[in-house]
Amino acid sequence: MTSSHIAKKQDLPPTAWAVLGLLSFPGERTGYELKKWADSSLRFFYWSPAISQIYAELRRLEELGYASSARSGPEELRTKRRYAITAAGREALAAWAADTAEAGPPVLKHGLLLRIWLGHLSEPERLRTLVVEHLEHTRGELAAVREAMAHAAGVPEWAFPALALRWAERRHLAELELAEALLEDLAEAARRERAHPEGAERQAGGDAPTPG
């Protein structure tokens, strides 16, 4: 790999590596097929890029020589461009995957908890409804994870994606447990408020509720 490629390699965002990772499995795929695969795998433990971002990363990867593409022949009704990883791309991806210094910490942005944090501006029943809706959504996501696990089961090339999906299954199970506990916490908070209504009138006008 040339020094210029090494310099460019360091500038690639994680999403570019994720797209290249999708190409690292056997076969050639269109951008649309990569998006479908990201929706049924990556989104359970990382995120699924928009189709426009996938194509932008594919163009970048082609410019670097990490991916190649070819248009379909006249045998297909609609012309499609299929992408594949190159030898240079596989080498660069393997080096990035082995570089633990680039992994970084997990990032949590929990929209529901942000609303719970602002619960003093909402009604208790509305907060409870939000948590119940979150439980229903999480159960649906868990079912989707298990469907993807069943699809990957027994396929040697998907042994490691199957491990990531198993982790996603455990995370969703933990999320369900946390949400159920949150419902109990909300109920307890409502009981305390009914028992001491004068406390609800006090607004935070002094110190923050947490150190900092």
Query: What is Rg?
Result: 23 Å
Give the overall pLDDT as a whole number: 88
Number of separate helices: 9
- Helix fraction? 55-70%
Low-confidence parts: none
Largest beta-sheet details: 2 strands, antiparallel
Could you state the order of secondary-structure elements as H and E?
HHHHEEHHHHH
The share of residues in extended strands comes to under 5%
Give the beta-strand count: 2
Q: Quote the distance from N terminus to C terminus.
A: 47 Å
Structural class: mainly alpha
Question: Could you say which overall geometry the principal axes of the C-alpha atoms support?
Answer: elongated
Q: Biggest sheet: strands side by side, in what order?
A: 1-2
Written overview of the protein:
This protein is mainly alpha-helical and 212 residues long. Helix content is 62%, strand content 5%. It has a two-stranded antiparallel ribbon. α3 (31-39) crosses α4 (51-64).
Give the secondary structure arrangement, pairings included.
Layout: H1 3-11, H2 14-23, H3 31-39, H4 51-64, E1 67-71, E2 81-85, H5 87-98, H6 111-117, H7 124-152, H8 159-195, H9 197-200
Antiparallel strand pairs: 1-2
Helix pairs in contact: 2-4, 3-4, 7-8
Can you summarize this structure?
This protein is mainly α. It is built from nine helices and two strands; from the N terminus they run ααααββααααα.
List keywords for this structure.
two-stranded antiparallel ribbon; 9 helices; 212 residues; mainly alpha
